């Protein structure tokens, strides 16, 4: 006989049971998510625990999930260990809570081992945001091209005012095939803030891309180690796409990383962004991982 699942047993976790509850999160047991969860836990404030939910009956926790608050009225959902009736009761409570808290976007990251969760999450009003592919390239095999051979000029992003930075992000987002559902849900300010959160050294290694006197794109890089750099964002304004500018920007990114001693570059691309996919594959990038993004989106 199956145990009866009652939403009355779902509640916000008391501080005295927090450690036990966290062990019921799926990411604790998923290697590809452990590092990100560890970072989230280290940075969590007291207010962040208001989104830690448990299912408890007769003093025993049988499931937990965490809605981790992020900047600009966004959040990340950390799933329970198992997709079962208990987890579905937790998801229902979390969805209601996200709505009442005024969170505009609450996303969840699904590695391949968690793809089976997708049907349950869609049934609980989530929508698909993107399928992400993680790519890498060995820069030692890439010949640096003299910057004099390129028509573009890079200028430090820090030279732009905050308003100009935001405007540039907005400009390259127009009509972009890179995670359009995500970009539609977030303001340019929120998108830019997200990139700052991902790059501790920012705005070092960030640039506006210029062609003559016109600002036509952006290049955001982040050193991840002494020998590995990440291409966080490379974008060109709509009127300059399909004109070879992206290839020039990518070459500039290689040169910058190589000149700083890097021998590897990594990036993330939306599977539906065919032009970017083609550019990266032609440059020699190879896929090494993938994930899916889903989210609750509120007006």
Could you name the key traits of this structure?
299 residues; alpha+beta; Aminopeptidase; twelve-stranded mixed sheet; 31% helix; 30% strand; elongated; GNAT family N-acetyltransferase; acyltransferase
Report, as a whole number of angstroms, the end-to-end distance. 42 Å
Mean pLDDT: 92
CATH architecture of the largest domain: 3-Layer(aba) Sandwich
Structural class: alpha+beta
CATH superfamily of the largest domain: Gcn5-related N-acetyltransferase (GNAT)
Number of strands: 12
Number of helical segments?
Answer: 9
Major sheet summary line = 12 strands, mixed
Strand order of the largest sheet: 1-2-3-4-5-12-6-11-10-9-8-7
The SSE order reads EHHEEEHEHEEHHHEEEHEHE
Give the helix proportion (percent range). Answer: 25-40%
InterPro entries: Acyl_CoA_acyltransferase (IPR016181), GNAT_dom (IPR000182), YpeA/RimI_acetyltransf (IPR050680)
Domain N-acetyltransferase: 152-299
Pfam family, one: Acetyltransf_1
Protein name: GNAT family N-acetyltransferase
Which secondary structure elements does this structure contain, and how are they paired or packed?
Blueprint: E1 10-12, H1 18-22, H2 31-43, E2 52-57, E3 60-70, E4 74-78, H3 85-100, E5 105-110, H4 118-123, E6 127-138, E7 153-156, H5 162-173, H6 180-185, H7 188-198, E8 206-211, E9 214-223, E10 228-236, H8 245-259, E11 264-270, H9 274-283, E12 286-297
Parallel strand pairs: 4-5, 10-11
Antiparallel strand pairs: 1-2, 2-3, 3-4, 5-12, 6-11, 6-12, 7-8, 8-9, 9-10
InterPro entries: Acyl_CoA_acyltransferase, GNAT_dom, YpeA/RimI_acetyltransf
Keywords: Acyltransferase, Transferase
Protein name: GNAT family N-acetyltransferase
